[in-house]
Amino acid sequence: MKLKRVEKTLAGWGLTLSRQQLQKLDRLIFILAQQGFPHSSIAHAEEAEIKHVIDSLACMRIWTPPPHASLLDVGSGSGFPGLVLNVAWPTTRVTLLDAVGKKIDHLRDISRALELDDVSTVHARAEDLGRESSYRESFDAVTARAVATTAVLAELCLPLVRLGGVWLLMKGPSGPQELDEARGVLATLGGQVEDDMCFDLPCEQGVRYLARIRKVDHTPTRYPRRAGKPQKRPLELP
Ligand code: SAM
Q1: What pTM did the predictor assign?
Q2: 238 falls in which pLDDT band (50, 70, 90)?
Q3: What is the pLDDT of residue 66?
Q4: Would you say residue 8 lies in a domain?
Q5: Does residue 181 surpass a pLDDT of 80?
Q6: Ligand 1 probe mutation, 80, 86, 97, 98, most atoms within 8 A of CB
């Protein structure tokens, strides 16, 4: 059994995963390593263990899903944090969303290889999904890692969170300042910061910031704006 570092880091956070869950995560890293870690700058398995798996599992520190929750991972890329969270929270239905079709095909292949239950994939832009009635305000939780600045992410993610659900913000050291600058945007879109924390990844692999943002109000129907607009003209609201 590998992934000793994952086990040790989780223990330091007062969390555990079963042997079977750790084995699945180990297999995920093995598969991605065989493929040369596509769509990322990760060079070797140890780096992936820390920057992909441990970083994704850190979401467990800030939110515990209710049984049979639904989670949307916006801009999932190679499946982080969405795939890892499906392993960690096996009764949570995870939807992996990406704007690039090839990434969605890859995610489908990996989910099949790992025999993950309750994982589905959607090839679309978050802005478009957020305007579709079957997805809008429907998820218990939304995640997005390394996709955009916090103000832009708020417009991509919050419209998709159900009232009472959460958006889990995953950032690096710029997190607190980005969140501070996006407070007006958050309030307008119906979000409220409930908890946050900074932590160090093991082996000095960087500082990370997590925030749990509760959906306390409906998002006004004019948001999200049409695809591409949130990135081109990020909202600036007092
Ligand atoms: N979340 C993964 C991670 O942390 O390893 C991937 C991060 S990658 C830098 C950003 C991903 O977001 C890309 O796969 C890109 O196609 C996707 N993306 C960017 N904007 C998007 C949007 N508006 N809707 C859906 N996916 C988007």
Answers
A1: 0.97
A2: confident
A3: 97
A4: no
A5: yes
A6: 98
Question: Could you read off the pLDDT of 206-230 as tens digits, one per residue?
Answer: 999 999 999 999 999 999 999 999 9
- Cα angle 47-52-58, degrees, rounded to a multiple of 5: 120
User: Which of 203, 223, 224, 199 minimizes the C-alpha distance to 211?
Assistant: 199
The reply to whether 18 falls in a domain is no
CATH of the domain at 172: 3.40.50.150
pLDDT at 1 over 80: no
Q: How many CB atoms lie within 10 A of CB 171?
A: 22
Range of the domain at 120: 66-232
Q: Is the CB of 97 under 6 A from ligand 1?
A: yes
Ligand 1 pocket test, pick from 97, 110, 147 with the greatest ligand atom count within 8 Å of Cβ, gives: 147
Residue 145 lies in a domain: yes
Q: How far apart are CA 114 and CA 228, in angstroms?
A: 33
